[in-house]
Amino acid sequence: MNLNLKGKSVIVTASSKGLGKATALEFAKEGAHVMISSRDEQELKKTVEEIQNESGNDQVDYAVCDVTKPDQIKQLVQKAVNRNGTVDVLINNAGGPPPGQFEQFSDGDWQNAFELNLLSFIRTIREVLPYMKQQNSGRIINFASSSIKQTLDNLLLSNTFRAGIVGLAKGLSQELAPHNILINTLGPGRIGTDRLAQLDQSRADQLGVSSEEVKEQTEATIPIGRYGTPDEFAKVAVFLGSGANTYVTGQSLVVDGGLVKAL
């Protein structure tokens, strides 16, 4: 299958580690020109070098970007355009909000989660759309969570705003289809990242057990029997963001080893 990604301009936000980094690497392996971003410049420099070495692709660069800062989003997109001429693919990603239950959260907590996990996606899409519309082509993938299909215990902030991402993408898919811009939502299940390790530790602290026990208990509920790997998730993202995807838009898909039982 020809993914038609060689020379394509790709932005991946929150990509110095975890799912964002794995996705940036897979795009680089396909010959794309990749712009990664996060708040930590030292981590970004290291990640660029790692991706270049592993992929053999030197067309990887970075921009420091806190996705809750609209000016920094503008600068990120402009740097990608200055370097690569346009934006063909946008991968929207952001760190997850803190775990907890309703009565624990203040207005500030809700506002922070909104800005990080929904408004940042809206702003980044707004910045790339003029370029995608001008060339009558584009792919947008919004990373969310398996909570887009089935809510997760003790993750009320995430449950709320991840659902908003699905509504955003579904509505936009109707508006953008005439411009050959396809937009989809991709939710990771239990994928082995630092974020998952933090959630397992939080759950372990609640239960008074070890994080390893929490992991073993969770793996027993996954039909495939293990946590997924970041590259397994990233390969799905790359297909949805590639030229091989010509007819999938407005969809929400989970990559979870069969864990979620909802239709």
Automatic annotation (TrEMBL):
Keyword Oxidoreductase: yes
An annotated GO BP: bile acid metabolic process
MF GO annotations: oxidoreductase activity
Keyword tRNA-binding appears in the UniProt entry: no
InterPro entries: NAD(P)-bd_dom_sf (IPR036291), SDR (IPR050259), SDR_fam (IPR002347)
Keyword annotations of the record: Oxidoreductase
Source organism, top-level taxon: Bacteria
Family: Belongs to the short-chain dehydrogenases/reductases (SDR) family.
Name used for this protein in its record: SDR family oxidoreductase
UniProt source species: Filobacillus milosensis
